[in-house]
Design goal:
With 319 residues, this protein is α+β, with helices and mostly antiparallel strands. The strands form two sheets. A five-stranded mixed beta barrel has the order 1-2-3-5-4. Strands 6-7 form a two-stranded antiparallel ribbon. The chain has helices at 108-121, 125-138, 158-176, 182-191, 196-199, 213-217, 220-235, 239-251, 267-289, 314-318, and strands at 15-29, 35-43, 46-52, 65-75, 78-88, 200-202, 208-211.
Amino acid sequence: MKPQPRICDLIPAAMFEGFLLVKDAQERINVKGAKYLDINLTDITGEINAKRWDNVDFIPSAGQVVKIRGQVGEFNNRMQLRIDRMRESTPEDEVEMPLLIPCAPRKPEDMMEDIIARVDEMENAQLKQLVNRLLDEAGDAIFYMPAAKSLHHAQRSGLLNHTTTMLKGARAVCDIYPFLDSDLLAAGVIIHDLCKIEELRSDEIGLVSDYTVEGNLLGHIVMGVSRLDRIGRELGTDRELLVMLEHMVLSHHDLPEYGSPKPPMFPEAEALHILDLLDARMFEMNSELEKVNPGAFTDRIWSLERKLYRRQDTEAAEE
Protein backbone atom coordinates (compact mmCIF):
# COMPACT_ATOMS: atom_id res chain seq x y z
CA MET A 1 0.00 0.00 0.00
CA LYS A 2 1.48 3.32 -1.12
CA PRO A 3 1.54 6.37 1.20
CA GLN A 4 -1.66 8.37 0.91
CA PRO A 5 -3.04 11.67 2.26
CA ARG A 6 -4.87 11.62 5.58
CA ILE A 7 -8.42 12.94 5.76
CA CYS A 8 -7.43 15.45 8.43
CA ASP A 9 -4.84 16.97 6.05
CA LEU A 10 -7.06 17.38 2.96
CA ILE A 11 -7.50 20.87 1.52
CA PRO A 12 -9.73 22.22 -1.27
CA ALA A 13 -8.57 21.55 -4.86
CA ALA A 14 -6.21 18.78 -3.77
CA MET A 15 -6.39 15.40 -5.50
CA PHE A 16 -6.91 12.30 -3.42
CA GLU A 17 -6.07 8.75 -4.42
CA GLY A 18 -6.05 5.98 -1.88
CA PHE A 19 -8.07 3.62 0.29
CA LEU A 20 -10.83 4.61 2.68
CA LEU A 21 -13.38 2.81 4.82
CA VAL A 22 -17.07 3.16 3.97
CA LYS A 23 -19.16 4.38 6.91
CA ASP A 24 -22.37 4.43 4.87
CA ALA A 25 -23.42 4.81 1.23
CA GLN A 26 -26.76 5.58 -0.41
CA GLU A 27 -28.02 6.01 -3.93
CA ARG A 28 -29.98 9.26 -4.23
CA ILE A 29 -31.88 11.22 -6.93
CA ASN A 30 -31.04 14.85 -7.73
CA VAL A 31 -33.51 17.55 -8.72
CA LYS A 32 -33.14 16.57 -12.40
CA GLY A 33 -34.02 12.96 -11.67
CA ALA A 34 -30.49 11.64 -12.15
CA LYS A 35 -28.96 9.12 -9.77
CA TYR A 36 -25.89 9.90 -7.70
CA LEU A 37 -23.99 8.26 -4.83
CA ASP A 38 -23.81 9.90 -1.42
CA ILE A 39 -21.11 8.26 0.68
CA ASN A 40 -19.33 8.94 3.97
CA LEU A 41 -15.74 7.71 4.17
CA THR A 42 -13.30 7.45 7.07
CA ASP A 43 -9.70 6.79 7.98
CA ILE A 44 -8.03 6.78 11.38
CA THR A 45 -7.88 10.60 11.39
CA GLY A 46 -11.43 11.54 10.49
CA GLU A 47 -14.43 11.40 8.16
CA ILE A 48 -15.35 13.04 4.85
CA ASN A 49 -18.49 13.10 2.74
CA ALA A 50 -18.14 12.23 -0.93
CA LYS A 51 -20.34 12.33 -4.02
CA ARG A 52 -20.21 10.43 -7.28
CA TRP A 53 -22.38 12.21 -9.78
CA ASP A 54 -22.22 9.69 -12.61
CA ASN A 55 -21.51 6.00 -13.21
CA VAL A 56 -23.36 4.85 -10.11
CA ASP A 57 -22.69 1.22 -10.96
CA PHE A 58 -21.12 0.25 -7.65
CA ILE A 59 -22.68 0.96 -4.26
CA PRO A 60 -20.34 -0.22 -1.51
CA SER A 61 -21.53 -1.56 1.83
CA ALA A 62 -20.82 -0.09 5.24
CA GLY A 63 -17.53 -1.45 6.54
CA GLN A 64 -16.13 -2.07 3.08
CA VAL A 65 -12.71 -0.73 2.05
CA VAL A 66 -12.67 1.04 -1.31
CA LYS A 67 -10.06 2.71 -3.47
CA ILE A 68 -11.02 6.27 -4.36
CA ARG A 69 -9.70 8.78 -6.83
CA GLY A 70 -11.17 12.25 -6.83
CA GLN A 71 -10.81 15.93 -6.09
CA VAL A 72 -11.32 17.65 -2.76
CA GLY A 73 -13.86 20.42 -2.69
CA GLU A 74 -15.76 22.34 -0.03
CA PHE A 75 -19.48 22.40 0.72
CA ASN A 76 -21.07 24.26 3.63
CA ASN A 77 -17.58 24.91 5.06
CA ARG A 78 -16.74 21.21 5.13
CA MET A 79 -14.38 19.17 2.97
CA GLN A 80 -16.07 17.00 0.35
CA LEU A 81 -14.72 14.58 -2.24
CA ARG A 82 -15.93 14.46 -5.82
CA ILE A 83 -15.29 10.85 -6.84
CA ASP A 84 -13.99 10.19 -10.35
CA ARG A 85 -13.18 6.50 -9.89
CA MET A 86 -13.94 3.95 -7.22
CA ARG A 87 -13.50 0.22 -6.79
CA GLU A 88 -13.55 -2.41 -4.07
CA SER A 89 -10.19 -3.22 -2.50
CA THR A 90 -8.58 -6.61 -3.12
CA PRO A 91 -6.06 -8.67 -1.10
CA GLU A 92 -3.40 -7.69 -3.65
CA ASP A 93 -3.76 -4.07 -2.54
CA GLU A 94 -2.31 -5.03 0.86
CA VAL A 95 -4.33 -2.33 2.60
CA GLU A 96 -2.85 -1.31 5.95
CA MET A 97 -5.94 -1.41 8.16
CA PRO A 98 -4.31 0.52 11.06
CA LEU A 99 -4.37 3.57 8.74
CA LEU A 100 -8.15 3.27 8.42
CA ILE A 101 -9.43 2.01 11.77
CA PRO A 102 -8.08 1.41 15.28
CA CYS A 103 -6.23 -1.93 15.19
CA ALA A 104 -4.23 -3.99 17.65
CA PRO A 105 -0.49 -3.22 17.42
CA ARG A 106 0.35 -6.81 16.41
CA LYS A 107 -0.93 -9.12 13.70
CA PRO A 108 -3.79 -11.32 14.91
CA GLU A 109 -2.07 -14.45 13.60
CA ASP A 110 0.99 -13.70 15.74
CA MET A 111 -1.13 -13.08 18.84
CA MET A 112 -3.07 -16.28 18.27
CA GLU A 113 0.23 -18.17 18.03
CA ASP A 114 1.16 -16.84 21.48
CA ILE A 115 -2.11 -18.13 22.91
CA ILE A 116 -1.76 -21.57 21.32
CA ALA A 117 1.83 -21.79 22.54
CA ARG A 118 0.69 -21.08 26.12
CA VAL A 119 -2.01 -23.74 25.88
CA ASP A 120 0.56 -26.24 24.60
CA GLU A 121 2.68 -25.50 27.69
CA MET A 122 -0.09 -26.52 30.07
CA GLU A 123 0.77 -29.52 32.20
CA ASN A 124 -2.86 -30.04 33.22
CA ALA A 125 -4.23 -32.19 30.41
CA GLN A 126 -7.87 -31.46 31.29
CA LEU A 127 -7.34 -27.71 31.18
CA LYS A 128 -5.49 -28.01 27.88
CA GLN A 129 -8.32 -30.05 26.35
CA LEU A 130 -10.99 -27.69 27.67
CA VAL A 131 -9.29 -24.48 26.50
CA ASN A 132 -8.54 -25.92 23.06
CA ARG A 133 -12.18 -26.89 22.64
CA LEU A 134 -13.34 -23.40 23.64
CA LEU A 135 -10.93 -21.79 21.20
CA ASP A 136 -12.18 -24.09 18.43
CA GLU A 137 -15.77 -23.02 19.12
CA ALA A 138 -14.74 -19.36 19.02
CA GLY A 139 -13.92 -19.80 15.32
CA ASP A 140 -12.33 -17.28 12.99
CA ALA A 141 -14.16 -14.33 14.56
CA ILE A 142 -11.52 -14.24 17.27
CA PHE A 143 -9.01 -12.90 14.73
CA TYR A 144 -10.85 -9.60 14.18
CA MET A 145 -13.07 -9.27 17.27
CA PRO A 146 -12.72 -6.12 19.41
CA ALA A 147 -12.81 -6.55 23.18
CA ALA A 148 -15.52 -3.91 23.59
CA LYS A 149 -17.96 -1.65 21.76
CA SER A 150 -16.16 1.33 23.28
CA LEU A 151 -13.57 1.93 26.00
CA HIS A 152 -10.75 -0.59 26.39
CA HIS A 153 -9.44 -2.47 23.35
CA ALA A 154 -12.30 -1.29 21.14
CA GLN A 155 -10.12 -2.00 18.11
CA ARG A 156 -9.80 -4.60 15.40
CA SER A 157 -8.30 -7.75 17.03
CA GLY A 158 -8.68 -6.05 20.39
CA LEU A 159 -9.83 -9.26 22.07
CA LEU A 160 -6.56 -10.97 21.11
CA ASN A 161 -4.56 -7.92 22.17
CA HIS A 162 -6.26 -7.88 25.58
CA THR A 163 -5.78 -11.63 26.03
CA THR A 164 -2.12 -11.79 25.06
CA THR A 165 -1.20 -8.79 27.21
CA MET A 166 -2.92 -10.39 30.17
CA LEU A 167 -1.08 -13.67 29.52
CA LYS A 168 2.24 -11.82 29.81
CA GLY A 169 1.03 -10.33 33.07
CA ALA A 170 -0.12 -13.72 34.34
CA ARG A 171 3.31 -15.21 33.69
CA ALA A 172 4.98 -12.41 35.65
CA VAL A 173 2.50 -12.66 38.53
CA CYS A 174 3.07 -16.41 38.81
CA ASP A 175 6.83 -15.82 38.98
CA ILE A 176 6.26 -13.45 41.91
CA TYR A 177 3.67 -15.67 43.63
CA PRO A 178 4.73 -19.26 42.87
CA PHE A 179 1.87 -20.72 44.93
CA LEU A 180 -0.52 -19.72 42.14
CA ASP A 181 -1.65 -22.43 39.71
CA SER A 182 -0.17 -20.97 36.52
CA ASP A 183 -2.18 -23.25 34.22
CA LEU A 184 -5.46 -22.36 35.91
CA LEU A 185 -4.72 -18.63 35.73
CA ALA A 186 -3.66 -18.84 32.06
CA ALA A 187 -6.83 -20.78 31.23
CA GLY A 188 -8.93 -18.13 32.96
CA VAL A 189 -7.18 -15.36 31.02
CA ILE A 190 -7.75 -17.08 27.68
CA ILE A 191 -11.43 -17.88 28.16
CA HIS A 192 -12.75 -15.08 30.39
CA ASP A 193 -13.88 -12.84 27.51
CA LEU A 194 -14.34 -15.38 24.70
CA CYS A 195 -18.11 -14.98 24.66
CA LYS A 196 -17.75 -11.33 23.72
CA ILE A 197 -17.72 -12.83 20.23
CA GLU A 198 -21.43 -13.59 20.76
CA GLU A 199 -22.09 -10.51 22.90
CA LEU A 200 -21.05 -7.95 20.28
CA ARG A 201 -22.24 -7.59 16.69
CA SER A 202 -19.01 -6.96 14.79
CA ASP A 203 -18.12 -7.16 11.11
CA GLU A 204 -14.81 -8.51 9.81
CA ILE A 205 -13.38 -5.01 9.75
CA GLY A 206 -13.72 -4.99 13.52
CA LEU A 207 -16.46 -2.37 13.75
CA VAL A 208 -19.10 -3.08 16.40
CA SER A 209 -22.56 -1.85 15.41
CA ASP A 210 -24.42 -2.96 18.54
CA TYR A 211 -24.87 -5.64 21.14
CA THR A 212 -26.58 -8.85 20.05
CA VAL A 213 -29.88 -9.99 21.58
CA GLU A 214 -27.93 -12.48 23.70
CA GLY A 215 -25.44 -9.77 24.62
CA ASN A 216 -28.21 -7.50 25.87
CA LEU A 217 -30.22 -10.18 27.66
CA LEU A 218 -27.40 -12.34 29.06
CA GLY A 219 -23.95 -10.79 28.60
CA HIS A 220 -20.61 -12.45 28.00
CA ILE A 221 -20.14 -13.53 31.62
CA VAL A 222 -23.35 -15.58 31.80
CA MET A 223 -22.84 -16.95 28.30
CA GLY A 224 -19.23 -17.80 29.15
CA VAL A 225 -20.15 -19.76 32.27
CA SER A 226 -22.94 -21.57 30.41
CA ARG A 227 -20.68 -22.60 27.54
CA LEU A 228 -17.88 -23.61 29.88
CA ASP A 229 -20.23 -25.80 31.91
CA ARG A 230 -21.61 -27.48 28.79
CA ILE A 231 -18.23 -28.27 27.28
CA GLY A 232 -16.74 -29.28 30.62
CA ARG A 233 -19.53 -31.80 31.16
CA GLU A 234 -19.15 -33.13 27.61
CA LEU A 235 -15.42 -33.66 28.15
CA GLY A 236 -15.83 -35.09 31.65
CA THR A 237 -13.65 -32.39 33.22
CA ASP A 238 -12.99 -32.82 36.94
CA ARG A 239 -15.93 -31.18 38.71
CA GLU A 240 -13.93 -29.06 41.16
CA LEU A 241 -11.61 -27.82 38.42
CA LEU A 242 -14.57 -26.93 36.22
CA VAL A 243 -16.40 -25.08 38.99
CA MET A 244 -13.25 -23.10 39.84
CA LEU A 245 -12.85 -22.05 36.22
CA GLU A 246 -16.54 -21.15 36.02
CA HIS A 247 -16.12 -19.02 39.15
CA MET A 248 -13.17 -17.22 37.56
CA VAL A 249 -15.27 -16.26 34.55
CA LEU A 250 -18.21 -15.35 36.80
CA SER A 251 -16.17 -13.15 39.15
CA HIS A 252 -13.67 -11.42 36.87
CA HIS A 253 -15.58 -8.11 37.03
CA ASP A 254 -15.48 -8.34 40.84
CA LEU A 255 -18.65 -6.36 41.68
CA PRO A 256 -22.38 -6.89 40.99
CA GLU A 257 -22.71 -3.42 39.44
CA TYR A 258 -20.10 -4.47 36.85
CA GLY A 259 -21.78 -7.80 36.10
CA SER A 260 -20.20 -10.24 38.56
CA PRO A 261 -22.63 -11.77 41.08
CA LYS A 262 -19.73 -13.18 43.12
CA PRO A 263 -16.39 -11.61 44.11
CA PRO A 264 -13.18 -13.59 43.47
CA MET A 265 -12.97 -16.25 46.18
CA PHE A 266 -9.54 -17.84 45.61
CA PRO A 267 -6.14 -16.44 44.57
CA GLU A 268 -6.23 -17.31 40.86
CA ALA A 269 -9.67 -15.69 40.52
CA GLU A 270 -8.41 -12.55 42.27
CA ALA A 271 -5.33 -12.45 40.05
CA LEU A 272 -7.51 -12.75 36.94
CA HIS A 273 -9.69 -9.84 38.06
CA ILE A 274 -6.68 -7.63 38.84
CA LEU A 275 -4.95 -8.45 35.53
CA ASP A 276 -8.18 -7.72 33.64
CA LEU A 277 -8.67 -4.39 35.42
CA LEU A 278 -5.01 -3.41 35.06
CA ASP A 279 -4.90 -4.08 31.33
CA ALA A 280 -8.18 -2.26 30.72
CA ARG A 281 -7.07 0.78 32.78
CA MET A 282 -3.62 0.99 31.17
CA PHE A 283 -5.16 0.82 27.70
CA GLU A 284 -7.71 3.54 28.47
CA MET A 285 -5.17 5.82 30.14
CA ASN A 286 -2.65 5.48 27.34
CA SER A 287 -5.31 6.09 24.69
CA GLU A 288 -6.56 9.25 26.40
CA LEU A 289 -3.10 10.64 27.13
CA GLU A 290 -2.11 10.28 23.48
CA LYS A 291 -4.80 12.86 22.66
CA VAL A 292 -3.25 15.70 24.69
CA ASN A 293 0.09 17.52 24.64
CA PRO A 294 2.81 16.93 27.25
CA GLY A 295 2.19 19.01 30.35
CA ALA A 296 -1.58 19.05 29.82
CA PHE A 297 -4.58 17.35 31.42
CA THR A 298 -7.21 15.31 29.61
CA ASP A 299 -10.89 16.07 29.95
CA ARG A 300 -12.64 14.15 32.70
CA ILE A 301 -12.95 10.50 31.61
CA TRP A 302 -16.30 9.14 32.70
CA SER A 303 -15.18 5.49 32.81
CA LEU A 304 -12.29 6.37 35.14
CA GLU A 305 -14.14 9.16 36.99
CA ARG A 306 -11.11 11.45 36.77
CA LYS A 307 -8.95 13.45 34.41
CA LEU A 308 -5.35 12.46 33.66
CA TYR A 309 -2.07 14.35 33.46
CA ARG A 310 0.45 13.74 30.69
CA ARG A 311 3.95 14.30 31.97
CA GLN A 312 6.25 16.61 30.05
CA ASP A 313 8.89 15.02 27.89
CA THR A 314 11.83 14.29 30.20
CA GLU A 315 14.53 15.23 27.70
CA ALA A 316 12.76 18.44 26.72
CA ALA A 317 12.31 19.38 30.38
CA GLU A 318 16.03 18.90 31.07
CA GLU A 319 16.97 21.21 28.18
